[in-house]
Each structure stands twice: as structure tokens, then as C-alpha cells.
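Example is below:
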Amino acid sequence: MKKKVNWGIIGLGKIANKFAEDLQLSNTAVLHAVASRNEERARNFGEKHKSVKFYTSYEELADDPEIDVIYVATPHTFHFENTMMCLKKGKGVLCEKPMGIDVQEVEIMVREARSRNLFLMEGLWTRFMPSINKLMEILENKAIGDILFVRADFGFKADAHPEGRLFNKKLGGGSLMDLGIYPVYLSLLALGIPLDIKCMARMTTTEVDATCSMLLNYENGAKAILESTLEAETPSEAYIHGSKGSLKLHSRFHQAEKITITQNGTKEVFNLEYEGNGFIHEIEEVNDCLLRGEIESSKLPLKTSIEVSHLIDRIKKEIGLDYKTKIASHKA
């Protein structure tokens, strides 16, 4: 059986740098190639992170027969076309979140991967953090009883440059797609799919949300109160309240290193540090899946990515956020 996984990276920005640093921590991963349309950037990134090769086109990288899986770290609105290109060239893909700009894109990507028997996973790195693994154990054991409500926020004050990635509609900007996906995903882990939702947002002059507030209602009466913002530094904590106690994921909750459980006035604290920049845990999940011949992760199945995207689409509709994707021209 193959012992090493050869990685390629396309889109060489800030997140890709942190990801490439964590690839060095893995005993089973090799950074085989990186690609940027800017030759100097590709060369410099490759040298910095000890990549075997560098390319000046994404297509050339995807054509490299030695690459097993490609990390797609381009801006949101390019995830679909970049991932589809890699899949059609026979490569497995780890696509940075959000996997697609809407659920239709995600469903097409999933069908493509499955039809070709190729690995595909969304880069929701939070799922593989030690703290979230512990959270799942706590929830499955009903340690805090039946979940009554979830409260989670994620916010920081961003540079409000209209052409910057976070506020540019053409790049999938806005707080919901960049930050809100984490509270939304946590609500799915804890409570599943909501019965109905109520959402409000403050929109920018570039027609994306600067702040998004979400209230989710569930069939059993449970509630989730979620918020994302690019306008202020918020606690970025998460609380899950149950019939037997409460749980806190400390800041920033999507990469928490501490969980506190409160029951009957007593507190139990779990210290759960992550390695490197935190990406190593999802990297090892992908490596393990590929080395076992699996085409999706049991911890983050493609069904979940479809559910996350569908829920975000419902929120987008509520707040009047529309990226106007032209999906028809990309159908497989």
C-alpha cells in the first residue's frame, strides 16, 4: 500500500501559507507542487514550503500524474470551477470552505466526484480540531442532556476596502460566507436542520452582509442564536445549553483549545490544544482517507456539506444576498 500522499496547492494566499506550514508536520504528506498564475509568487511559495515543483497554471498542476490530492484555496467564487477542473483531471480535492457559493454548485461537485470515484471534502477544518472531537463525544453521550439552545458568534473588525476579498461581491465577500459558516455548522452538529429561520443583516454598499444575525427554530422547540460580523471584535464564543448542564467553547470557538462544562454549580474544564496552525488535523484526515482508498470522510461527509450549503442558501434568501452565479455553463 502507498505510504505517502502527494499534495498540490492552488491559490497561494494567506490560508494556503498556513496550510503548507502544517503539511510539513505530517509524516504521510508531501507537498509535491504549488501553482499561481504569478510565476514569482509560485516560485517563492514553493521555495518557502519546500515544494518539489511549482507551476504557473492550475491546469498544469492538475495534469501532474504524481499528485494525489489538490487543496483549492482560491477565493470563494472560484471554488466551483477550480474543483471541477481538478476532478475532471482525475484528482482528489480538499476545497476550502465554503465549498460552493450555493448548494447547486456543491451538489454538482459531489456528483462529479462520486461519478469518478474521487475523494472530495470541504475544508471545514474546525471539524477535526481536538475540541470539536471532544464536543461530539459530549453530545453523543448526552452529558449535558437534551440540547435546548445554541448561541455562537464570530466577528472581527475588517478593513472595509470595497475591492478587498471580504467585501467584494464578485469574490463571494460578506460575513456570512467567510465567518457565519462556522456558527451555522456548529448549529448543524448540535441540533441538525432547523424547521424555520429568521435572519437580518446590515448590508454594505458592495451588496454583501457586514453583519448577519440568525435565529433558527427546531421542530422540538430548540433554538440557535447565531451571529457573524466584519464590523466589530466580538467574543467569538459558543455556548450549548442542555437540560442537564451547559457547555462553553472558548474563543475562538471554531478553533477552541478549551471546553468548560457547567453542571449543578460545578465546572469541568478540558484543555484540548491543536497542533501547528490547526490545519494538520484535517490534513491527516484526508491522508488517512486516501491511504485507505476512501472517497469521503466519515467525520465530514459530503451530505453534511450539502446541508450546510443549503442552510446558508436559506439565510442568503432571508437577507437578500445573491451572488448571481452562472451555474448552467459549468454543468458536468
